[in-house]
Design a protein that fits this description.
The protein has nine helices and 21 strands. The longest helix has 26 residues, at 381-406. It has 438 residues and is an alpha/beta fold. It is elongated and about 75 Å long. The protein is 26% helix and 23% strand. A hairpin with a 2-residue loop joins strand 1 (2-5) and strand 2 (8-11). It folds into three domains: 2-86, no CATH class; 95-204 and 336-425, FAD/NAD(P)-binding domain (3-Layer(bba) Sandwich), CATH 3.50.50; 221-333, FAD/NAD(P)-binding domain, CATH 3.50.50. It catalyses: [thioredoxin]-dithiol + NADP(+) = [thioredoxin]-disulfide + NADPH + H(+).
Length: 438
Amino acid sequence: MRASQGTQTAAISAPSDEGAPGGAGWGRETGRESFRLSLPQSAARSRTRYARSLLARLSARTLPTNSSAVCFTATSRQRGLSYKELFMTETQDNLYDVVVIGGGPAGLTAGLYLARARYRVLILEKDDFGGQITITNEVVNYPGVGRTTGRALTQTMRQQAQDFGAEFLSAEATGLDVDGDIKTVHTSRGDLKTFGILIATGASPRKLGFEGEAEYAGRGVAYCATCDGEFFTGKEVLVVGGGFAAAEESVFLTKYASKVTVLVREPDFTCDAAVAAEAKNNPKIDVRYNVELKGVTAGQGGLREATILDRATGETETWKPADGGTFGVFVFAGYVPATQLVRGVVELDDHGYVVTHDYLETSVPGVYAAGDLRVKNLRQVVTATADGAIAAVELERYAKSMSEKTGLVPPRPTASAYEQAEASAAASGAAAAPGTSP
């Protein structure tokens, strides 16, 4: 151990007892030189990265004892209490009740609920806030909201969360430390300390890589029949895939499309025969086997042509709708859950989705999951926001219990933007802020 004053330094041994002022264990005075104690050696042996950095910062400080005396006049108990106070203050100032990883509908809803309940919450997103719904040009099935775009809908969600005091950070989560009462989220912009964590990183449709797929995603190429089927009413559509989803969704699409052509890469469907039979026997569905979609091209109004490879002969053909109009492509090749961050941390199913309990807690206490990355039957914006609300309420309880247990209270929001506007209006005699809710 070392102690210092000004530019003077000297070695000081670890204490064996509380010792009297000036005792050899905690400080020494040589002539007129007084040496101040740094951190206790035992505390400096902490193995956690955050503790090491915090203790290193504190080590440069003088203990907050009487200003007329140097450190060695304090007892061990006084020294311990002083360091505890410093540690608690630094920890609280940098502590969150909940860190939400993922800024899609589930994460934004959770942020709104937590901030409105006066908990300190930060929403972390490595890409665009809003999630994959932002590429959808039209959303018409979100209850209570008229026809809108995915980006407009999620921008409103973000603004609501921000108005209530939620914090936002554009960064990538790179790792988690979930042991103990205070958890750590490692990010590309530093570490975050938190009581609870919500994983809301979503799942994305598996892309096939055919020409035009990325360019026309959301503009003719779709991945959700429930979301986008209506937009192709009276038009022909291609369905790409040979599994359960392709068979089932091709039948669903016959409610809107004039004709559905299913492109199956294998010699037959790979799903249950009964499900496949529904598609095969539907008069509005044409199934083609051993074929592969190689690309699509667009013209005025939408997609106009598709290039299809016959895997048996190696020949390609240019496909067009019978009426010469535009058409849609629906890809059902499965989803890829964005769960790399939690692999080996929480329980996943065989397909990589997060397994949650009834109230969305994972196999690790204090770590919850919401949205498309968890095991569920339906993946829609409305189910994601429902997940976010449920998880937020549970995380409120968890953060409260951890705060009571540790004695740490993060710097929480005191007044939302709504309340600030209302207070300002009341002070000036104006009407209350519109949209203010109790």
